[in-house]
């Protein structure tokens, strides 16, 4: 490869500061160091967690950064010590690593690998170190991935090699939203056949949770969203009913309890709002109901009456749907290729990296499920 070992100059969307549009800049991407791979990003989805960092979390130490964490691409070159990857491999960057060596990777109970940015940087959402510079300044790597860039450098513990036949502009969604929602239902909630589920928030994450509930054999899947336009999509993924909390002047948990003779077996919060998290818990059946927090926030505390748990409900959370990332993503790619899970139906818009601000505004307005940006040609 002509570029191997050299600094690559390329385009990236840089978030210079919170609450401002991203700026398409020429950046420099240094060659991969030991155990690292440099990836040419072909396509990326825009996920609400990108918006969270930009408009809600706004952690001052988390800028400037290249956002984006739902991408797919092709290995351009590899650093010393990398044997698992070679140039030309099709890959998905992982915002949660799987080193296979730490105590978390060795435990079947969790996917929270001890290595990588997520170990102790939930608030800043990046590590201090990165391979990006722009105009002489260090630019941070958001969630350890930064897919709003033509090239990015990742440690090999956070890269999944996938079927070379998989369409990168579709399977990029498995880098975050779809695995997160699907896994939240299948791995974290462990939805059982014949059960009744409620999913709050019909973005890509929530729709994927609906798909997961259906996959697991749920009998009733109640989709909850304040945007009535989401009802139709919810049905495409398997929702049997749709409820808009704005249509009622009593708490949605009461409405759901009435609809289900006491409460749902499983509820999944895919909004990122602490009030909705409480409502989701309170929508569960006493005795055995399980509620999973999927929506992302590090800004607010949540609360609930202890009696909710004393009465036998369980409150859980999930990161990346509980999937061990390097193992889980190629399996989900395979499931898509075998038509066992849907991906195309999540994509409502296709744009280019240069249109990233348009894509962000669209998501803010609730005007899309997923926009996929084409980042570079291949
Ligand atoms: P999105 O913005 O596309 O979807 C959110 C949906 O929630 C929208 O349809 C909106 O209308 C709906 N909503 C808003 N307020 C509501 C309310 N009060 N009641 C019911 N519905 C309401 O977002 P997304 O990309 O699908 O992401 C969803 C959440 O999941 C975000 O918080 C994101 O940060 C989080 N997330 C978490 C993980 C994880 O690993 N836990 C990974 C990815 C995303
Ligand atoms: Zn995401």
UniProtKB/TrEMBL annotation:
Keywords, comma-separated and alphabetical: Metal-binding, NAD, Oxidoreductase, Zinc
Source organism: Oryzias melastigma
SMART domains reported in the protein's UniProt record: PKS_ER
InterPro entries per the UniProt record, alphabetical: ADH-like_C, ADH-like_N, ADH_Zn_CS, ER, GroES-like_sf, NAD(P)-bd_dom_sf
Protein name: Alcohol dehydrogenase 1-like
GO cellular component terms given for this protein: cytosol
Names of required cofactors: Zn(2+)
Pfam family, one: ADH_N
Single GO biological process annotation from the record: formaldehyde catabolic process
Entry's Gene Ontology molecular function annotations: S-(hydroxymethyl)glutathione dehydrogenase [NAD(P)+] activity; zinc ion binding
Annotated Enoyl reductase (ER) domain residues: 17-373
Family: Belongs to the zinc-containing alcohol dehydrogenase family.
PROSITE patterns, sorted: ADH_ZINC
